[in-house]
Amino acid sequence: MTFLSHLINGISLGSVYAIIALGYTMVYGIAKMLNFAHGDVIMVGAYICFFAVATYGLPPIVGVLLAMVVCTALGMLIERLAYKPLRQAPSLAVLITAIGVSYFLQNGAQLLWSANNKMFPNFLNFGGKTGLSLFDGQLTISWTAIVTVVACVVIMIALTLFTGKTRIGKAMRACSEDKGAAELMGINVNTTISVTFAIGSALAAIAGVLLCSAYPILVPTTGSMPGIKAFTAAVFGGIGSIPGALLGGVLLGVIEIFAKAYISTQLSDAIVFAVLIIVLLVKPTGLLGKQIREKV
Amino acid sequence: MKNNRKLRLTKTSRTNFLTYLMVIVAFVVLNSMSNAGMLKSALQGQLVPICAYVTMALALNLTVGVLGELSLGHAGFMSVGAFAGAVAASAMRDAVAAEPVRLAIALVIGAAFAALAGVLVGIPVLRLNGDYLAIVTLAFGEIIKSIINNLYIGVDARGLHASFVQNTIALGDGGRMILSGPMGIPGVTKISTFTAGFILIMVTLVVIFNLVNSRSGRAIMALRDNRIAAESVGINVTKYKMMAFVTSAALAGAAGALFALGQNTIIASKFDFNQSILILVFVVLGGQGRMWGSIIAAAALTVLPELLREFADYRMLVYAIVLILVMLLTNNPTLKGFFEGLAAKVKKSEKGA
């Protein structure tokens, strides 16, 4: 039973990583940049939802929607102001700019909302219970875990349909394959990149709320470690691949929780990263990544 | 052809010479100001960290600028050097009385351990390319942090004792704990001096310039510019990548030891991802492969938060904005053109007047 309970916790945490990893993977696929500020967009989303619900007493669903709207606007604004002027610049310059944006968001949040811990409310309790009791109460699955996994699956299906069927989704795939050719076919590359950032940031807002529902301490640096782990998850699954992000995220979450439960709490991060290194040595482009042939 | 080569060499050696000169002049000026008591106490305390960060930036520039591979985990090597050096210095406290000698031994031990870590990390890492290599160095940085965070080292009459994860060390009479896991090393004897830092920077420059201007250095840069072409003319990829990476790790270790021995306390979580990024910022702002740029950027950005003290709460925000603006100004063609045009206009009007 404890095994099952750990597994469910792992899948739930992994689903959050997967949702965050999607943001990384989509942006990387199209703009070929590591958007290190993504983790901090998660934090902003969590704060917006926290204030909407805890301070202004809005219903949780409105809080989540509000967080999504704010994060989408924020993501597009960041893209427009900081990344778009650097479209032709070397990738390291863009990376440093992303880090600058990340510092900016963290310190801005600290000024606006102070560095004190905020306890994120758990708004998922139905009939006074915070979870689903199974096997005469031997196994409790929290509503948060269920909602997280369901949200992750829904998002994944929606995104797959979106990139496969819609016009803008197809444009995104075209841009990630060959920007120049896509432009010649009449695709507006700038708009497409902007839309990608918008989607990634909206997902970050959802991830922020889900993350803080499970781990309720909210500080301005809440987003950075999950951000790094989700980035690892994206690489793990093969960066640029949407199913890869799901697989990488869930595996990473399960490994992390199992390492914590059965090996050592302090060493769980080290174990997660060690697994990543081993996977990359065997499959250098991640589990589901495309093998890129080098041309001479 | 022959003439051309001679010319290029002189240009490189002139840049190198000017870099040495810049460091020496800066040291002489700061040292005399410091002796005359003209430096603010905040800046005075920053002298050793500045030297450590300058060395770190030079070391990372060897990996990023000369070898052309992005490392996001260099703080890990700094950490290995810092803890190896500080433990060594603490253990030798009674055996070696002279502080400069103890410091020198600690720096060498720090560099040696970091070089060893560099070899261990380099074997798997250098098989990968591009962003994948970067993420693996990030992973190694985090792993090193976790390991040191769980390491316990004590010393007694029988020698050094170590344990992992749990503190199971039973010390004999007169024994003491040096490193206690997440608490780090609480009582570091400060033996790093500004002069030692200056010597370390000079040694680092000598090592890097000699490496870069050697046959091996040219092989390393050939790998950076075009790996496949370099490989096809018979350059041993692994050997030369390893050479640059391990040298860089060893220098980072020495910088770490210098840094640690100038602090009261060191903890492993200080050397995290953010620290790696901070050093990467120095390298990118200073210019990849440009050593003097790294020196100036590292020194300026270490002092900048101190200078921004008056902004108090806003200082990290200002730092972030400065970082973004500098990146935009130096890399965006439109903005760059605008400012160059502006500068030209100012010059013209000055001439006219």
What does this structure look like?
By secondary structure, chain A is mostly helical. Chain A has a domain at 19-146 and 162-224 and 238-245. Chain A contains 11 helices and 4 strands; from the N terminus they run H-H-H-H-E-E-E-H-H-H-H-E-H-H-H. Chain A has helices spanning 2-31, 38-55, 60-83, 91-113, 143-165, 167-177, 179-184, 189-214, 224-237, 242-263, 268-282; strands at residues 118-119, 131-134, 139-142, 217-218. In chain A, the strands form 2 sheets. A two-stranded antiparallel ribbon of chain A has the order 1-4. In chain A, strands 2-3 form a two-stranded antiparallel sheet. In chain A, a hairpin with a 4-residue loop joins strand 2 and strand 3 (139-142). The mean pLDDT of chain A is 86. Chain B is mainly α and 353 residues long. Chain B has one domain. Chain B is 72% helix and 5% strand. Chain B contains 13 helices and 3 strands, in the order αααααβββαααααααα. In chain B, strands 2-1-3 form a 3-stranded antiparallel beta sheet. In chain B, helix 2 (41-66) packs antiparallel against helix 9, helix 2 (41-66) packs across helix 10 and helix 4 packs antiparallel against helix 9 (237-260). The longest helix of chain B has 34 residues, at 2-35. Chain B is globular. The relative contact order of chain B is 0.17. The model of chain B has no long low-confidence stretch (mean pLDDT 85). At the A-B interface, helix 4, helix 9 and helix 11 of A face helix 5, helix 10, helix 12 and helix 13 of B.
Largest sheet of chain B: 3 strands, antiparallel
The total count of helices of chain A amounts to 11
User: What form of chain B results from the Cα inertia axes?
Assistant: globular
- List the strand order in the largest sheet of chain B: 2-1-3
Kindly, what is the distance between the CA atoms of the first and last residues of chain B, rounded to a whole number of angstroms?
Answer: 46 Å
